[in-house]
Specification:
It comes from Chitinophaga jiangningensis. This is DUF58 domain-containing protein. Pfam families: DUF58. The chain folds into two domains: 247 residues, von Willebrand factor, type A domain (Rossmann fold); 32 residues, no CATH class. It is 39% helix and 20% strand. The chain has eleven helices and twelve strands. It is elongated, with a radius of gyration of 21 Å. 31% of the residues are buried.
């Protein structure tokens, strides 16, 4: 992956839509167009254009031959809703090398939104912060994407996760199968994240969980620190220079293994993402499951 697409470089782009386009265009470079455009799409038939149809579905070759407007019906019937859910609780303020989890999450969500909009699918956005949930309903229009990026720009981490989240807060509009993308650090007090993910899966949605972590966080690199603070509870732990790296690493591995095992048992895809790593792995995982749900 080019250094131009490193998280530090991408997050330096203040225009969120421009940053998303940079990530996606860089990811798509070198990939065959037919592999990306209309993934899992099987053409069925044409039908006459209706005023409510998206202009992107028009077949201009058919128009050139017949002087009439037609749309490819299969594209309309197989379009899906994508729901991006961001954990914006206090723990997402954790920062390494100038990159915070919440900023990585915002830019990853913007990139996913840009990619799904290219595919002609409707994208929704939900954020959990300060014990509350805000949701921007799924739409396909360009104006909706402007609101999508605006909501991400205004998103700030704070507070704790709600003890009992109302699942209907995430899926406004007609009930249909969705691709749910949850971006979180999996720090919870009473299985709040796990309960949400389990509920999404029980509703029949395809679910991807992206686990944001930092390299210091994974390897107990706390040299130079006298104490660490739990960003959600405010609890301070004095280090006194006595962090057992081996014991810490074992505890970290047990923590992530338990998460992965639980999600696998519920058919939820799990991917750990380092704050220092480019976002291409997340985009690849997303497209894999995007293709699966469109079959």
């Amino acid at each position: 992956m080019s250094k131009l697409l490193s998280p530090a470089t991408i997050l330096a782009i203040r225009d969120l839509q421009l940053a998303a386009r940079t990530v996606v265009d860089g990811f798509l470079t070198g990939m065959h167009a037919s592999r990306m455009k209309g993934v899992g799409l099987e053409f069925s038939q044409y039908r006459s254009y209706q005023p409510s149809d998206d202009l992107r579905w028009l077949d201009w070759k058919m128009y050139a031959r017949s002087d009439r407007y037609y749309v490819r019906q299969s594209e309309i019937e197989t379009s899906i809703d994508i729901q991006v859910v961001i954990d914006a609780s206090n723990s997402m303020l954790h920062t390494e090398e100038g990159i915070s989890k919440i900023d990585y999450a915002r830019y990853l969500a913007a990139s996913l939104g840009y990619l799904t909009h290219l595919q002609g699918d409707a994208t929704a956005l939900s954020a959990i912060s300060n014990g509350d949930i805000t949701t921007l309903a799924a739409r396909r229009e360009a104006r909706h994407m402007a609101r999508f990026y605006y909501q991400l720009e205004q998103l700030h981490a704070g507070g704790r996760l709600p003890e009992q989240a109302n699942i209907t807060s995430f899926t406004t509009g007609p009930h249909k199968r969705r691709l749910m993308v949850f971006i979180t650090d999996f720090y919870e007090h009473n299985a709040e994240v796990m309960r949400l993910l389990d509920a999404f899966a029980a509703m029949g949605h395809e679910v991807i969980a992206f686990h944001l972590t930092g390299q210091q966080e994974q390897s107990a690199r706390f040299s130079g620190y006298q104490a660490v603070e739990d960003l959600e509870t405010g609890e301070v732990l004095q280090l006194d220079g006595n962090v057992d790296a081996t014991q810490y690493t074992q505890a970290w591995q047990a923590f992530t293994v338990n998460i992965h095992r639980h999600l696998m048992e519920n058919n939820i895809h799990y991917r750990m993402l380092s704050l220092q790593a480019p976002m291409d792995m997340a985009l690849r995982d997303f497209l894999l499951h995007y293709s699966k749900i469109r079959r």
